[in-house]
Amino acid sequence: MCLVKMNHLNGSQRTAPMESPAPQNPVAEICDYIESHLDEELSLERLSSVANLSKYHFHRQFSASTGVSLHQFIQLMRLKRASYRLVFHQEQTVLEIALEAGFDFPESFARAFKKQFGKSPSQFRKHPEWVDWNKNYLFQVPGDIMNIDIEVIDFPETMVAVKEHQGDPARINDSVGQFIEWRKASGLSPVRTKDTFGVSYGDPKLCEPGEYRFDVCGVVDAEVPENPQGVITKTIPGGRCAKVVYNGSRDRMEDTIYHIYRDWIPENGESLRDYPCFFRYRNFFPEVPEAELVTDIYVPLA
Asked: Which of 28, 128, 136, 141 has the fewest CB neighbours in a 10 Å radius?
């Protein structure tokens, strides 16, 4: 879905955490565990022990919840990290990426990668086809809404460089790649010192693919000059926002976002401002495991 570092908060107001009576979901918990331990041996015995469930039933419960087997999920998560390494870390060799993914030989990595995605690692590195790739990750992992700490804050008006994306949400990584290219070439919004945001103009699951819009953003201090990547200048407006710090895979943020809209806003008598939901990305995959990602979610309030 959506991407920022808050430099200043004015009049911060914290609401009490909203608690759900539902117990923590063991499948969601084990998915986080897998994502944090991809470099280790992940046997059924170990994972069922972590989930505190019988190994004779855990794999069936996992498959029933996600639609994929435990073995498939582990393999897909390792290949997902490898895919991002191939495209966004060109300095790494295919051999290094294969070893990191748990393959002893690049040939076996290439066979598994091509079987899953229809392209060899080298072909994917040169011409990633994210739409077909994304079809391998459409399974659902149940989210956990246990204790969501929601703040009402004043977000400061923020100038950003923007690579606009319009079209299939599965192709957002193409726009991300162009934005990264601009960042490196221009030096105007270095990722280590300037916050990274995303602005989502609608729900990617409800929009027609050709109509979905998303802005990939980085904070800048001045107007962006004309450039080959088509990056432009915009402003994220200041104002009241409901803010949640979300920890974990960004593929599973939607339960938290829906909770804010469906439950918290009406229960607290709030109304929405005419600006879309947006995000600040505090860190990035695959530099950190997906389970360790931290994302600030902002819902603009009137």
From this structure: 136
What residues contact residue 79 under an 8 Å CB cut-off, 6+ apart?
A: 101, 112, 113, 116, 117
Q: Could you report the per-residue pLDDT of 86-135, keeping only the tens digit for each?
A: 999 999 999 999 999 999 888 999 999 999 999 999 999 999 999 999 99
The domains found in the chain, sorted by start residue, are 10-19+145-300 (3.20.80.10), 26-137 (1.10.10.60)
Alpha carbons 190 and 100: distance in angstroms, whole number: 27
pLDDT-based confidence at residue 20 (cuts at 50, 70, 90): very low
d(CA 202, CA 292): 26
What are φ and ψ of residue 34, in 5° steps? -60, -45
3-state secondary structure the chain: CCCCCCCCCEEEEECCCEECCCCCCHHHHHHHHHHHCCCCCCCHHHHHHHHCCCHHHHHHHHHHHHCCCHHHHHHHHHHHHHHHHHHHCCCCCHHHHHHHCCCCCHHHHHHHHHHHHCCCHHHHHHCCCHHHHHHHHCCCCCCCCCEECEEEEEECCEEEEEEEEECCHHHHHHHHHHHHHHHHHHCCCCCCCCCEEEEECCCCCCCCHHHCEEEEEEECCCCCCCCCCCCEEEEECCEEEEEEEEECCHHHCHHHHHHHHHHHHHHCCCCECCCCCEEEECCCCCCCCHHHCEEEEEEEEC
- Say if CB 161 and CB 196 are below 8 A apart: no
Q: How confident is the model at residue 147 (pLDDT cuts 50, 70, 90)?
A: low
pLDDT of 180 above 50: yes
Q: Residue 179 and residue 230: Cα distance in Å, rounded?
A: 9
Q: How many CB atoms lie within 10 A of CB 65?
A: 18
The yes-or-no verdict on residue 17 having pLDDT over 90 is no
